[in-house]
Amino acid sequence: MGKTISRFAPSPTGFLHIGGARTALFAWLLARSKGGEFVLRIEDTDRERSTQEAIDAIIDAMKWLGLEHDGEIIFQSSRADRHNEVIDQLVASGNAYYCDCTKEQVDAMREKARQEGRKPKYDGSCREKDLGPGPDRVVRLKAPLEGSTAYNDMVKGPISIDNTEMDDMILRRSDGTPTYNLAVVVDDHDMGVTSVLRGDDHVNNTPRQILIYKAMGWDVPNFGHVPMILGPDKKKLSKRHGALSVMEYEKMGYLPEAVINYLARLGWSHGDQELFSREELVELFHPEGLGNSPSVFDLKKFEWVNSQYMQQADPERLATLMQEFLTREVGEEEAAKVSHALLAKVAPLLQPRAKSIVDMLEQARPFMVDTTFLAYDEKAVNKFLTDDSKALLEALAEKLDALDEFTEESVENVMRGFVDEKGIKFKEVAQPTRVAVTGTTKSPGLFETLAVLGKDQTMARIRRAVEL
RNA sequence: GUCCCCAUCGUCUAGCCUGGCCCAGGACGACGGCCUUUCACGCCGUUAACAGGGGUUCAAAUCCCCUUGGGGACGCCA
Predict the structure, then answer these.
(1) C-alpha angle A369/A370/A372, rounded to 5°?
(2) A320: CB within 7 A of chain B nucleic strand
(3) Which nucleotide is nearest to A50 (CA to C1')?
(4) Most C-beta atoms within 10 A of its C-beta, which of A35, A306, A442, A451?
(5) What pTM, to 2 d.p., does this model score?
(6) How far apart are CA A324 and CA A310, in angstroms?
(7) Which residue numbers of A are catalytic?
(8) What is the predicted ipTM?
(9) Which pLDDT value is given to residue A243?
(10) How many CB atoms lie within 10 A of CB A298?
(11) pLDDT of A239
């Protein structure tokens, strides 16, 4: 066996949701971990439902996640001629045949079988008729009538099904177009795919596809089927059921490496390890670690994972992201009023406190607005900006105003000294100052907050607060 | 209906293949505490699970069978 080639083959009927992204991630990891290739094929043969918009959305999402594919993107719709060529070969070799049964006739066969408690299937009445091409005729695979088809699933282990369970599936429709199962096999074979990792819902297709490989005399690739993702109610996650586009998570301010990490741990494990860098994932991934039962998407844990990455992230990068989000929110002109440098100074203070970029931006608000626009929380004001504390603030302001250098250290020295001098507890002046300067009772450490705010803003805010 | 797959704390999972180290470990959450200038972070602790029943065995979460429950498939959709 040569190098591992895996693939991701979405049908472009909508955005890339979290389940699809996870499948793509595992396929990507499989290839990368073995130094192989990861190819992308768009299964756009359903022209009714496929849209360019969806194709773009899928590509964008994969790009955001960093799941780069090798080579050109293959569009299945462009390969119909090749598919038909294979079908003709199958007919010529006696592994497929024309069938002129109508849909109604086949439905009747299925109904009858179901009544009799058997598996509903086509009864093979045209198998030996030796029909040629003709209008309204389909081509069916001449599937084996006995024995069984088995394979070793990379995640589920050995799977075997009696051939009597399968009927002679249609390879070419009466309108001349190839069917999905045929197209997938031909494409995977032609692309040299050695490992097919896909969603659970394809387990039943696999033996059928193996039959086609065998009929063509092709090597059968390795198959693996990953279980689906469930919503909090244990129901399958679907578009209308909480399965968000991965780009929705981007909009909510989650980091792509957090999405990757969380998704990887959802259904895959490596001992007790929870946090994995992309490099570690590539190094440690192997399909044996994939779980075989469906898992529930847990937003709380995902948030925790994201907060871990927020803490580790480069402040410069966070500042850039905050600016992007701000731009989306208020437009370029307004966003430009907040400097990158300021945001980069604020970010480290907020890193242990923010669980997403959106959250961080929200908490950065007091740092971004000018004193005149600072919003004061009514409760906080009533509780901490009393007459007594205002007097204290005025006295403190004088001391701060005398500072030449307004740094964390100098501010701390002044405040500590002030507390000693007045014989009060630090808390007694800390909370009023905090409220005066941020408008709320919650903020990063006082000294760092004042230092980042700078002398001018600090003084202005204390003065404004005293007047409230 | 028939076939296929699945089943460990609320959730993600380790352990299962190669029985004993498991009266089941980690993580998130929840709860309590510590730290502390607020809020977080961090740290410490508590909570909580082998779906049920039969076997096999000196010994079963681990092997076998059955039941139950969940999911998927049975398309001239992908």
Answers:
(1) 120
(2) no
(3) B78
(4) A306
(5) 0.92
(6) 16
(7) 239
(8) 0.93
(9) 61
(10) 12
(11) 60
